[in-house]
Every structure is written in structure tokens, then in C-alpha cells.
Amino acid sequence: MTKPNLACYSPGLAGIPVVESSISYIDGEKGLLEYRGIHIETLAEQSSFEETAYLLIYGKLPTRAELDAFDAELRHHRRIKFRIRDVMKQYPEHAHPMDALQANVAILGMFYPLPRLLNGGYDEATVRDVVVKAIAKLPTLVAAHARMRAGDDPIPPRDDLSHAANFYYMLTGEEPDALVARILDVALIVHAEHTMNASTFAMLVAASTGADPFTCISAAIGALSGPRHGGANEAVLKMLDEIGTVDRAESYIEEKLAKKERIPGLGHRIYKTKDPRATLLQRLYAELMEKEGPDPTYEIARRIEELTRETLGKKGVWPNVDFYSGIIYRRLGIPTDLFTPIFAIARVAGWLAHWREQLGRLRIFRPTQIYTGTHGAPYVPMEERGA
Ligand code: COA
């Protein structure tokens, strides 16, 4: 057995590179996030989720013809088979949408077996097929489950709407106006990729064994479902509801900090300044409030940001993407437990980009451990083990 390299031991693999990648880049000190070298602010202003997904996966901005073809394929593959809807009917009413999504994506793998090359890999046409089916069908799976758990029929996708607008339509039955569609589109763009995080790593660990890509995405969704990865925006809303009014924010925060408790939505392992994604979402939300009126919950969040700027800001603890995203989703009428599935709908682009980048390059992940147990222990007969 390989001897563990104790000098490299890093709980959570913090700081240990596991792949070489050219997909995204973060500078946590400067608050910089780039996809394929392009600033996230530029993409949020000028791109769409569909184009950003293409950029992440194929490594370049598409030409008009390439984007049109990709977009047309996505629209074409939005539908899900009635058998998959039938399976969903059997899920318990209380099933968490992330659990349902994880199961549904694994089910996709059964419905779409993929031809493999002799070396066990996939050719580019099969990769394209997976990319399109996964990105196109995840929103339909999320929306269909959300409606069916409430006893409603799923709303079939519409081919004339953008990826983000169609998701909103399938969820609510209403076509979003241009601003709401844009807000959702930007939310998908800013969540689409974020270097080597837990869910992306889970995707690659599964991929390194040669597991089929739907199984790998299902593994990534499982990793994303944990509250320390995908669920912080739910915790932010809970806190804001608990505070209730702006004038109570100061005493609430003081008390939390005195007890050395963490304030959800603040701080990030990598960003030591304000998360650029939080700034982008906040800016768009300001537009919505201008149009549709103020939001008292948002005012509480802003007050918290103001109150913690001096104290926590000095320690590099600033609002992260989750601080404002939940507030926005709620204003759009999206149920809280769908926040993380929306994250998955976006992040599947990043997962697939990493999967494609590593195809044929991955060595099976087989780290080691530092064994702290005993050796040659006796097998004590049951009758001698005590009560
Ligand atoms: N509220 C209050 N204090 C916080 C804080 C928060 N949200 N996040 C970090 N701090 C403080 C710590 O108490 C510590 O203070 P100290 O040096 O006086 O002991 C200091 O900032 C550094 O904390 P540390 O745990 O080393 O930071 P980290 O980079 O390892 O942690 C997180 C990053 C995300 C785990 C952490 O900021 C956190 O728990 N945030 C809240 C949960 C959240 O929003 N998660 C979603 C992230 S996208």
C-alpha cells in the first residue's frame, strides 16, 4: 500500500489541486470570478444562460450558428417521458425536491443508455447528446415534480421561451415579463460554475470510475443537497424572517456576534471581499423593486450588510451569493425548497464542462488515509464480550 504523504494531509483537501482545468477562475482577494477568462459581470450583462453553458462546456463563445443550433437542441429536448412522470407520481408528498431530482437524473441514465467507445469513453456526438439532454431536462424535472407534489398536472415546456423563462412558465403557468426572465437568467449564469467545489468534485470522482454521466450528475446533485453547499440561502431567509423588521437588525446581529454565532450568507472559503455574484443579483433586484415596489426583507438584509461591514469585513467576511439570492427567488414566488434545485439547474453546465474536460484524462480517484486503528486485534468470542 502507498504510504500516506503526511505533508500533503489537508482535511477537506483544502488547497490540494485535484485536476488541471481551464474552465473558471476565482481571485478571492479581488472578488473576481471568470468563466473561460471572461469576467462574470460581462457575462451577466451580455450573455444568456444558454450561451454561457456553451462557453463553459466547449471553451469558446459560440458563433451565431453554433448558438442557434445548441439552443434549438436544448428546446427540442425539454420534454420528459411519461414513464418518468409516472415514477414521480409514486414519490411521497413530502419528498425534498433535491432528493427527487437526484433520483430523476439517475433515472434519465436508464432511459438513455449511451454508446461507449472501445476504451470505455464516449465520442463527441454522445457527449453532445448528454450535455443537451441533461441541461434541457433538469428544469422540466424540477418543475414537474414541484407541480405533481401539489397534486397538479405538470405543465409541458414551451419551445418559444428561453431556458430561464420556460422554467418559470413550467413552474407557475405564467410567462415571466422581460425583467423576471432576465433576473432568472442571470441567477442561472452566476451559479453555473465555481471551480473545484464539493459537487463538482463528486461529479469527477464518479466520472473517474467510468460511471455513466447521468449517474455522475446524480452524485453531484447529492453532494449539492447538503446545507453547507447549496442551502445557505434558505438559512438567510429564515434569519431575516426571524428578525422581522429593520430596527431589530442591530440588536439581533450584536447578540449573534457576542455569542460567536455565524450569520448565514456572510463569509466564503475563497472570497475575502464581497462575492461579485451577490453584487450582480443585488443590482438586478434593485431594478425589480423600482418597478414593483420595495421589499422590507431586502431592507433588513441591506442593514445587516451595513452593520457587519466594519466588524466582519475586517476579517474578510462579506455577503456571499446566497445572501441575496433567496430574497429574490421568494419575491418571484418560488418555494424555498426549490432554491437548491435551481442551483443544480444552473450548475449542471459547470459539472458537464468539467466532465468533458476530464474525459480520457482522469485517473481513478484513490486517495489514501492515515490509519489510526490497531493491528492484529483478537476476535473475542461473543460470550466473552460482556453485556
Ligand atoms: N458570521 C460571523 N462570523 C463569521 C462568519 C459568519 N458568517 N463567517 C466567518 N466568520 C468569522 C469566524 O468566526 C472567524 O472569526 P475569528 O477569526 O474571530 O475566529 C473568521 O470570520 C474566519 O472564519 P473562518 O471559519 O476561518 O472562515 P472560512 O473561510 O473558513 O469559512 C464559511 C467560510 C462559508 C464556512 C463561513 O464564512 C460561514 O460559515 N458562513 C455562513 C454560512 C454560509 O453562508 N455558507 C455559504 C457559503 S457560499
Tell me the number of helical segments per DSSP (H or I, 4 or more residues long).
16
Order of helices and strands: EEEHHHHHHHHHHHHHHHH
Strand order of the largest sheet: 1-2-3
CATH class of the largest domain: Mainly Alpha
This entry's quaternary arrangement is single chain
Low-confidence stretches: none
End-to-end span in angstroms? 37 Å
Give the percentage of residues in beta strands.
under 5%
What is the CATH architecture term of the largest domain?
Orthogonal Bundle
> Main beta sheet: strand number and arrangement?
3 strands, antiparallel
What is the CATH homology-level superfamily of the largest domain? Citrate Synthase, domain 1
Bound molecules: coenzyme A
Mean pLDDT across every amino acid position = 95
Note the topology.
Elements: E1 24-27, E2 32-35, E3 38-39, H1 40-46, H2 49-58, H3 64-76, H4 82-89, H5 97-111, H6 124-149, H7 163-172, H8 178-191, H9 198-208, H10 213-224, H11 232-243, H12 249-258, H13 276-292, H14 296-311, H15 322-331, H16 339-358
Antiparallel strand pairs: 1-2, 2-3
Helix pairs in contact: 1-8, 2-16, 3-6, 5-6, 5-10, 6-7, 6-16, 7-8, 8-13, 8-16, 9-10, 9-16, 10-16, 11-15, 13-15
The chain binds coenzyme A.
